[in-house]
Amino acid sequence: MIRALAVLSATALTSGMVACGADAPERQPLPSDVTMQVDQTRLERKTRNAFVRVDNDSGQTMVVSRFVLSSPRFDDVQWQGDETLEPGQQADLEFVMPPSRCGKGVEASVKLTYRLGDSGARESEAAADDPFQSIGLLMDRDCARNTLAEAADLRVGTPTVVGSGGTSLLNLPITLTPTGKRDDIRFGGFESTPLFRQAGDSPVDVDTHIDPSSPTEIVMSVAPARCDPHALAEDKVGRLFGIRVLAPELPRGSSFYLPLDRDQRLAFYDYIRARCGL
Predict the structure, then answer these.
(1) Would you say 3 and 92 are in contact if contact means Cβ atoms under 8 Å apart?
(2) 3-state helix, strand, coil in the chain (%, to 5)
(3) Which 8-state DSSP code applies to residue 129?
(4) pTM of the full predicted structure?
(5) 111-135 tens-digit pLDDT
């Protein structure tokens, strides 16, 4: 598999953006033995890095020079490069997901510019599946975050350790300051991660009204979910804590990751090392 990085942008695209002096690519249907999908790896869950995967089973060498990724839920994304796929190869053409809007499904399509074998430049447009629902989940997190932002500004405080030894917990204060724009959005609780479980009085499955007249103070309390050194060394998503948002237009269980800065993330690792004796 080839992983390709190239110049990209998330912007409204003007027509006819081809290299100066070059002939416009011929529009043709995408060959049935060339497929595309959108995805994000587990290692990139804390980022917005994603990719369009192109699988070339055509039996001919394929050279990809550009794509435009479109969806009703985000502004068009453009990728430009020069990526060669031999028969049977696949390439991941990387891009950064733009902010997305609320909606259902992904409905992504890709307009691909490429050469196949000895052909001239072609342009084909086809749907791009989201087989593992990674992009859909990323967009749903955007939707949950944007919905909460209509009702309140979220501020994450300083983590503190309470107690000592094997019974200590890490507390993280959260403040929701009302915007006054909506009064029908509620807080639904926090989610655990592979490294940390919600503990103590931490709200997990709740339906808490966000006061439209004064800040709402909430404390997330966690304890280690496991203490083996391997889990800590290999961790990629252990500090991605979901915060659930309840609203009339959101499906039950909608959430997004708490925005933690570097010092806050380090505090969670320092705590688990001390608590587990690692």
Answers:
(1) yes
(2) 15, 40, 45
(3) B
(4) 0.87
(5) 999 999 999 999 999 999 999 999 9
